[in-house]
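Re-running Small-conductance mechanosensitive channel to confirm reproducibility after the cluster update. Everything else is unchanged from the original entry.
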Amino acid sequence: MNELEALFEQGSEWMPWLVDTVINLSIGLIVFFVGKFVAAKVSHWCEKRLLKASVDQAVAGFASSILYALMFAGVALMALGQIGVETTSFIAILGAAGLAVGLALQGSLSNFASGVLIILLRPFRSGDFIDAGGQMGTVNRIELFHTYLKTPDNRVIIMPNSSIMDGSIVNFSREATRRLDLVIGISYDADIRLAKQIMEDIVSADERILKEPSCLIAVSELADSSVNFFLRPWVASGDYWAVRADLLEKIKYAFDERGVGIPYPQMDVHVHKQES
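Result of re-run:
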């Protein structure tokens, strides 16, 4: 009987501590999950407000990612403090561990730094079509560590920011106009003047081709199997691919109708019979 009473006495001594621990743990978990939810909502709301204020989508996405990361860190510290973890000591421990983690995560830190440089230097904006890091696509979103590109066939490419900043960036959308660089070959027995006149007529009839700068049509090379022309009209950047395809199709039809041959690679073989 005495042992049972002693057990109850020990239980009564531990019960307040156990209850407080369970309550603090429950409150800490509630703070963490509610705070995480609120942080996501606030960052999303801020991104929408920035977009309404005509801020570039890439900048808005990057800013919302930073805001969410900061709020999430604050919520985590609040939850740990509610549980009973000494946050001051914990921050000091995190600072010491951060150095080691930083050395181990140099790639991620490099991606973060590259993301900051992308936002500051603005080599491209959301909606620009770029060629960077060996990939081509339309910039959809820039986040802390990655940039999202959407390809013309609707694939999403998630690229590390460092791979973009470490190489050349070709921005096809930065300028309002672009020049088409086409090489048109005709056979050696075709009329050069006629071929040139046909291309001039096609170019002048297309309203999408700009009058200034003027289109260059000139013989560029006397190649092995053809006489090659430069065809270099200027168009609006958004019309580039459509005009290119239309020009090639119209030139082919016009050459066929007017008897201008388009050669293919050929080789003359001469056979000499040796007298025995």
